[in-house]
């Protein structure tokens, strides 16, 4: 309690004393409550409290480990003193463990420093396991010294082992046709490679590491051969680039699976898959260096031969990486990742310029020649770019789209405009037939290129590009070729309409003399041959449609043109012959013969008649005109002014099967037959 003003100076200490006393009293009350509950005593029975507290204090003072603390906590509850005691025991346990590990580390350092002989791989693995079991912090001086000494020992062991392994590998020439596949040699090679791989693991090398001692030694023979063959070249040439990629492919073809058979040891992790992946990865090291130096040299030099070398190098990288994946099943890091984006831009510019130049030369050729050449060019370009398109390397997706856009869409689009505008040499002097045939050639050209693009759009590389494009632009294009295919579709419609227009002009010009015939009503003899005035038209149309039929690629368009041509013939025959003349029976028969002759020139199926509604109506009109020459009771009834003026032709329609001709034309035809 405060007894004077001076006590205010110690107010803080007094408050702490009171709080401590309260805690002490609370613990006593807790013990009292616990003892009372266990002994059935009332809350007022406190005469034995001091004895019980003394007993608890004695037991707590005798606690020596965590098990004692757990027992006391179960008996007396979660007392503060027990928590403190537990914390002390934990600290002491950690201190002892750290001291033991420190002693263990010091002992191992001493063992490593006093080695008399080089330890074997088994002893090294035992030490490694002991080091791995230590929980000392990396900054611990003894632990750091231990790991450094152990690492140096592993490094020294690996250097010795590599020398032995590489000497044996060179002596037995395992990667040559001279290898005898001796059982002892194979076993020794496998054991040495396995030891090196176990040393890799002790050194902390992972299977994904670029430098594994075991595989560096396996690839040593290839490195020596590669250096001997190619490292003396001062200037890289395109042919030398192709040569060392070809050398790599031959080496793997002859030795890859032999290597897997010799060096696999799944028990320690040297699975066939790992041997394949890491052998190729390590064999690629000298080629990576070669590629890097070539890229640097060509980038520093002017265009010309160096640019040609660069283009060949990049193309060979694409081919090589695809060959490694498809032929040798290698899915590790290839060479394509070494190509900088600006170098890819240079490559793309060159390829576009080269392909465009070829197309511009084709535009100077006749259509038939350039059509064939352009198809060949497209197929060759696809084969050329196929290794690039097949690469699974996301950073180059934009360049893939650019190749497709500028070459496989841009060049056909440019050619589409050229085809539409093409007029040929001296087109002003061309006859109508020549113009017609050239227009058919245009149609064939457009359709063949369109067919190629339709085929390309379903190929996996272009499907992948479509998916990528839609994802990047939040679009829903059915194909990356959508725009250029629409362009060709419109061009084909334009050319088809031009064919029909030229056909109409040609038929009109050829039938001009035929239309002047006015003797139909006086003809007394009908022949099974068309009239002389029609023979020229028949020959001309026959020639043109035979020419069209030769072009299988436009078969669907031919059907459309045939349909339109038939409509044109019917229109001319109806307007300029039937509606302007009267016919004797022979005249009507001759008209039907002439019409059939014209129809046959279209190469249409003769059994498919009528071919369209226009033909059906025309044939119905001819049947009405025939009524005049039948002389039956029905014909007399139908050919009466009263019947015609009655404007009810249901009976006539049923009798003559008239289903397409409107009433107005039925009336007109009946009047003409009077």
TrEMBL record:
One of its GO terms (biological process) is endoplasmic reticulum to Golgi vesicle-mediated transport. Signal peptide: none annotated. Keywords: Coiled coil. Transmembrane segments: none annotated. GO terms for cellular component: Dsl1/NZR complex. Residues 53-118 form a coiled coil. The keyword Coiled coil applies. This is LAMI_0E02828g1_1.
């Amino acid at each position: 309690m405060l007894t004077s003003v001076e006590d205010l100076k110690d107010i803080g200490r007094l408050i702490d004393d009171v709080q401590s006393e309260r805690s002490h009293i609370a613990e006593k009350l807790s013990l009292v409550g616990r003892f009372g509950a266990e002994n059935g005593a009332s809350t007022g029975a406190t005469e034995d409290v001091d004895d019980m507290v003394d007993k608890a204090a004695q037991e707590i003072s005798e606690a020596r480990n965590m098990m004692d603390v757990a027992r006391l906590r179960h008996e007396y509850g979660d007392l503060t003193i027990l928590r403190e005691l537990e914390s002390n025991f934990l600290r002491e346990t950690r201190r002892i463990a750290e001291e033991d590990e420190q002693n263990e580390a010091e002992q191992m350092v001493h063992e490593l420093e006093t080695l008399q002989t080089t330890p074997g791989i088994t002893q090294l693995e035992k030490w490694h396991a002991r080091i791995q079991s230590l929980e000392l912090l990396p900054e611990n001086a003894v632990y750091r010294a231990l790991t450094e000494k152990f690492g140096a020992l592993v490094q020294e062991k690996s250097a010795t082992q590599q020398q032995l392994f590489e000497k044996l590998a060179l002596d037995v020439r395992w990667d040559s046709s001279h290898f005898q596949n001796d059982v002892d040699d194979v076993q020794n090679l496998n054991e040495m490679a396995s030891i090196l791989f176990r040393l890799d693991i002790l050194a902390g090398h992972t299977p994904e590491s670029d430098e594994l001692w075991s595989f560096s030694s396996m690839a040593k023979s290839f490195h020596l051969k590669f250096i001997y063959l190619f490292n003396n070249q001062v200037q890289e040439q395109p042919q030398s680039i192709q040569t060392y990629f070809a050398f790599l492919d031959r080496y793997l073809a002859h030795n890859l699976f032999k290597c897997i058979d010799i060096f696999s040891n799944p028990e320690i992790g040297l699975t066939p898959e790992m041997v394949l992946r890491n052998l190729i990865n390590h064999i690629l090291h000298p080629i990576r260096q070669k590629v890097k130096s070539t890229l640097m040299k060509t980038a520093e030099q002017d265009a010309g031969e160096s640019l040609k070398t660069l283009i060949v190098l990049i193309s060979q990288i694409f081919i090589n990486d695809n060959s490694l994946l498809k032929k040798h099943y290698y899915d590790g890091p290839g060479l394509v990742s070494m190509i900088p984006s600006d170098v890819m831009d240079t490559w793309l510019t060159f390829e576009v310029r080269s392909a465009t130049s070829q197309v511009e030369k084709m535009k100077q050729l006749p259509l038939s020649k350039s059509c064939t050449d352009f198809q060949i060019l497209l197929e060759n370009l696809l084969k050329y770019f196929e290794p690039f398109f097949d690469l699974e390397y996301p950073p180059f997706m934009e360049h893939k789209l650019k190749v497709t856009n500028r070459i496989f869409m841009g060049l056909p689009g440019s050619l589409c405009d050229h085809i539409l505008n093409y007029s040929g040499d001296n087109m002003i002097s061309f006859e109508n037939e020549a113009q017609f045939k050239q227009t058919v050639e245009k149609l064939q050209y457009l359709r063949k290129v369109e067919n190629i693009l339709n085929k390309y759009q379903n190929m996996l590389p272009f499907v992948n590009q479509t998916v990528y494009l839609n994802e990047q632009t939040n679009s829903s294009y059915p194909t990356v070729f959508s725009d250029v295919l629409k362009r060709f579709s419109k061009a084909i419609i334009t050319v088809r309409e031009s064919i029909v227009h030229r056909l109409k002009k040609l038929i009109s010009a050829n039938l001009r003399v035929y239309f002047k015939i006015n003797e139909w009503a006086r003809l007394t003899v009908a022949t099974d041959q068309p009239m002389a005035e029609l023979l020229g038209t028949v020959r001309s149309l026959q020639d043109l449609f035979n020419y069209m039929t030769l072009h299988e690629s436009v078969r669907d368009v031919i059907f459309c043109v045939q349909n339109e041509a038939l409509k044109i013939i019917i229109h001319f025959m109806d307007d300029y012959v039937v509606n302007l003349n009267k016919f004797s029976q022979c005249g009507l028969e001759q008209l039907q013969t002439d019409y059939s002759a014209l129809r046959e020139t279209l190469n249409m199926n003769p059994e498919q008649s009528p071919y369209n509604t226009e033909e059906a109506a025309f044939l119905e009109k001819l049947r009405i005109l025939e009524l005049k020459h039948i002389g039956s009771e029905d014909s007399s009834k139908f050919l009466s002014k009263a019947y015609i003026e009655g404007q009810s032709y249901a009976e006539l329609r049923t009798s003559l099967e008239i289903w397409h001709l409107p009433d107005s034309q039925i009336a007109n035809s009946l009047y003409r037959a009077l």
